[in-house]
Amino acid sequence: MSKKRFVQAVIIRSLPELPKLPAAIKYAEDLWDALTRHGYGQPIESKPQTGKDWHRELSDRQRKWFTAFWLAFGHKQGRNEAAMRWHQLGELTDAQYQQIVDAAKKEAGKQLAPGQVRKMAQGWLFEKRFLDYAPDERVKRNEQNAVLTRLTGELNGVRQLYEAGGDEALLEQINKLEDQIRQARQTA
Hints:
Order of helices and strands: HHHHHHHHH
Largest sheet: none
Helix content: 55-70%
Number of helices: 9
Low-confidence stretches: none
Radius of gyration: 30 Å
Structural class: mainly alpha
Number of strands: 0
Oligomer: single chain
Mean pLDDT: 87
Distance between the termini: 48 Å
């Protein structure tokens, strides 16, 4: 924030009467100077930063996934800004990257109402709109329950076969299914 904007903000917040305006401006300027001496504020006005190639800043892995995202998203404006937002996401797992790419495909295929414009990629990433397409927790739970039900059914069937006089191969299958059930419960 510049000193000028800081002084304006202080004056606007305090809303002094017109005769007291010069004193309020002096107070705001002194406040700026005191804050600057203590390491807050900027002694010089900030200037626009030179452009940075954010695509180049991405790691090879991030760049690979960003390219997949960029192709999937469809709205080809603001690539450098979108790369900056991608960089800010940090290193994610392949599954998380894939979730973002899949959500971008869905976003690109979404019909817009007349007069609506598509969100640019950098805003979409910054607002984490890809989470709008994340599977619902209930759906995940139902899928996990279906897996557990299927595994338990298989286990019961194999146990019945083993108890009816099956061989050692069925015992190995029982142990394998019990391990799969244990792993499924741990991920639930």
